[in-house]
Amino acid sequence: MPTTNANPPLTETRACPLCGTALLPDKPDECPHCDWVRGEERHPLAGFRDRASVFLSVAPGLGHIYKGHRLLGAIIMLGSGFAFAFCFLAGAASAGWGLLLLPLYWGAVMLHVYWTDDRALHHHTRG
């Protein structure tokens, strides 16, 4: 009588989510190349780099470039010039109330860069 194996062995190779290295079949929960361990999905430097990118976003777009999003960073830098001009025009037209838009824009850019994935960090760990 033929039997079936309820849990066939995995024959596919899985890759590390941080560096892309093939995981060993006997240790599928840790990476031998970059020390990734399942359950620790964030890189140890991720928190520091997130805070550094927020600090760099004092010049809007610079934090995005730091995190590896070059095109988006350039677009935000270009757009920030238009946003600042709009805020000053709105401020002049509304007796200064329009200038309150400027910190909202700056805060939105800083929050966005904090929550954006760090492409530069993952790129450097692959080498």
Main pleated-sheet profile: none
N-end to C-end Cα span: 52 Å
Order of helices and strands: HHHHH
Give the number of helices: 5
Explain the layout of strands and helices:
Layout lengths: L45 H11 L5 H5 L3 H24 L7 H15 L3 H8 L1
Helix pairs in contact: 1-4, 3-4
Give a quick rundown of the structure.
The chain is an all-alpha fold and 127 residues long.
Task: Describe this protein's structure.
- It is a single chain.
- With 127 residues, this protein is mostly helical.
- The chain folds into 2 domains: 11-41; 46-118.
- It is 50% helix and 0% strand.
- The protein is built from 5 helices and no strands.
- Helix 1 packs antiparallel against helix 4 (101-115) and helix 3 packs antiparallel against helix 4 (101-115).
- The model has no long low-confidence stretch (mean pLDDT 80).
What labels would you give this structure?
127 residues; mainly alpha; 2 domains; 5 helices; 50% helix; 0% strand
